[in-house]
Structure formats: structure tokens, C-alpha cells
Amino acid sequence: MAMSKEQRRKIYGIREPKDPADPAVTARRHLHESMVRWELKWLNSIHFVTFVIAIAIVLAPAISKFWRAIIEATPLISRVFSEFSGLRFWPIFLLSISLFSYFYSMSRIDGKSFSEHGYPINLAHIGSAREVIEAELYPRTKLEERVFWIDRFSGVLTALTVWHIMFGAIAFFIMKGMK
């Protein structure tokens, strides 16, 4: 038997809002719902595709000399390999943005007050696309909306970059060990 929205909110520790919702934010709820549905549909696929690409472009050339020669012969792909396997500016920059947006949405770095109403702010491990849909955890205030969009941005950016950065670090140490 499926749980109701109220039961899920009770499990997560989210109370019914005591303050009225911002009409401008609730008017954009269709955008929030669309983004969450898009994330639910595509984020795992994006993770898989970037995982395969990161292995092929970043990790495999560090392991195989033959594959590295092929990658280095292709201009754009060789640039991606050299950036990520050398731990240069772009991987560090993307990792910094990912970590900042992740911790911002989890800990409210800007010092605003704790919220356990509406969109979950400071509630550990809540905010996945499925949880947002099942418990209808859409933002109601401008603060919650800002956290919502940063949280969504963090998820997409992480899906696009985490494998390249991780395999790049591994490739960096493999190539250092080969010298």
C-alpha cells in the first residue's frame, strides 16, 4: 500500500507550513514539477553516459598506450583527456561549484533560518526527485525556491562531471606511477 503525502512528510519530519506561500513562487510550480520529472527521467541516464565517456576518454588512455595514442590524435577529445587527467583548472573549478552547490542546499551557508516546512532545507537526505514528487515537496517561498534550484543544479552538474573528475584523479595517479 502506498503512503500518502502526509505520511511521507511525517516520516521526513516536515510539518505543514505555518506561513502563507508566496504567490509568485507557487505560480511557478509547473516549472518546479517539470524540472523534477525531467530529473527523475534523465539523471540516471546522464550518469551512465558520462560514466562510459569518462572511462573511454579519461581513464582508458591512462591505462592503455594504444588507446592513449588514439585519444591524443583527436583534437577535442585529447584536450578533455589532458584537462581531466592532469588535474588542471576545469576539473577543480567544476568540483568546487558542485561541492558549493551541494553544501549550500544541504546546510544553508547564507545563514538563513532552518526550515522544516515546504521544500526541505537542512533535512538530511531529503530532496531527491522521487521524494519531492511523492511528498509534494515543492518550494513555497523565495528562499525555498532558491535552495530548490541550487539543489537541482547540483544534481545535474554532478551527473555531468563526477565521473570525469573521479577517473581523472585516478588517471593522474596512474600516469604519475608510470613515470
In whole angstroms, the N-to-C terminal distance is: 59 Å
Q: Please tally the helical runs, counting DSSP H or I stretches of 4 or more residues.
A: 8
Shape: elongated
- In the residues, how many domains can be counted? 1
Strand content: under 5%
Q: Largest sheet at a glance?
A: none
What ranges have pLDDT less than 50 throughout 5 or more consecutive residues?
Answer: none
Please tally the β strands and state the result: 0
Mean pLDDT: 84
Helix and strand composition category? mainly alpha
The ordered string of helix (H) and strand (E) elements is HHHHHHHH
- Secondary structure: helix percent: over 70%
Rg calculated over all Cα atoms: 20 Å
Describe the structure.
With 179 residues, this protein is mainly α. The protein has one domain (28-178). The chain contains eight helices and no strands. The chain is elongated, with a radius of gyration of 20 Å. The termini are far apart. The model has no long low-confidence stretch (mean pLDDT 84).
Compile the SSE list and pairings:
Elements: H1 5-12, H2 23-27, H3 29-63, H4 65-72, H5 75-85, H6 89-107, H7 129-134, H8 142-178
Helix pairs in contact: 3-4, 3-5, 3-8, 5-8, 6-8
Task: Label this structure with key terms.
179 residues; mainly alpha; 8 helices; elongated
In short:
By secondary structure, the protein is mainly alpha-helical. 72% of the residues lie in helices and 0% in strands.
